[in-house]
Amino acid sequence: MRRSAIGCTAVTAVLLLATAACGGREETGGGATTAAGQCQGQQTTGITDTSIKLGGIYPLSGPASAYGDIPKGIKAYFDYVNAEKNGIGGRKVEFVVRDDGYQPPKAVEEARRLVEQEQVFALFQTLGTPSTTATWDYANQRKVPQVFVATGASKWGTDTAHPWTIGWQPNYVSEARVYAQYLKQERPEAKVAVLYQNDDFGKDLFGGFKRAIDGSGVTVVAEQSYEVSDPSVDPQMRNLAESGADVFLNITTPRFGSQALAADAKNTGWNPLHIVNNVAASITVLRPVGFENVQGIVSATYYKDPNDPQWKNDPEMVLYYEKMKQYVPEADPTVPYHTFGWAVASSFHKAMEAAKCPTREGLRDSVRALGGVQVGMLLPGVTMTTGADDGFPIESMQLMEFKGERWELFGDVIDTRKEFGPLTD
């Protein structure tokens, strides 16, 4: 879907309307600003009339360091908006990135540093279910928006005790439902072997899959878990290969995803249909295994693949390639994690523009009142929608199969809200 090109004049108009609705603006101490009337007394830490400061926490090192590519795409987007669009509503974005090494205690330390020392307006993108789980109590106690976290755990949308935290990508339970539906239609008697990360992430997706196949002819015949501290998943893969399963569900993060794919390729005596979850489906995970060894694997996605030629002349993809080369020239624009970063930064831009007041409370409310918002880097038919009883911004996905040197989409976009009904614990 083509992203609307909103120039500085239009953005300014939107902000003037929002300011008018809030009763005008007045200065507060410390150089921050607040609004009178509706916005009076709301938090303006980290935002002024000319700037907005965001903080992100990623595993730039450690077992999930492949995700360190995401903030590069975010940087490209914000640098572009700052230099060429006068920021977001006239506010230049400063994006401060911290490394937690995929360690929850470190994530808490970095969240405190960002909030208390860096004085960020919001935590934008804390990556990983374990790290976000470790930090969301702190963020909500401090009433700091923790928006569009980079994890699909279902609790970000079902929990009601943490209104300041919200996800962005499709949740793991809905993703699992997509795979379950695919197997029920294409392999109704499938015997499935499952490898999953032994934490909230892995258990969430695996649990959703088991519930989705309940009562069908699809059965789980073997399961193996691994810890993020494990050096390898080779022992688990050997055990799964002995199960006789004809489908392998790979619920891993990038490093272990590559290992599982490589182990599957080496085991010539086991040739299951290989389904890999979205978070480990990047080309950077597949390339080390050898493209010849990953032909026919299946996954699901919701944003455009920079390697897919069908998007060659897509206005958003053209803009993405141009600005990645201009603002982050050392980064490879064909890496989908960069595209993910661009997409989520653009989503933040939309949400911030829609805020009735430029305050922490305004952003908190805005991300929970999205009405079919279109973002240029999302697949056609995929939009952001939230509401009082719906804390899941993106709930549509499309299946894809790896062929040659890239993923190929197949079937229709699946709106999991309509297809499977509301998500419950």
UniProtKB/TrEMBL annotation:
Annotated InterPro entries: Leu-bd (IPR028081), Peripla_BP_I (IPR028082)
Species of provenance: Planomonospora venezuelensis
Keywords, comma-separated and alphabetical: Signal
Domain Leucine-binding protein: residue ranges: 51-403
Family: Belongs to the leucine-binding protein family.
Domain of life where this protein originates: Bacteria
Cleaved signal peptide residues: 1-23
Protein name: Branched-chain amino acid transport system substrate-binding protein
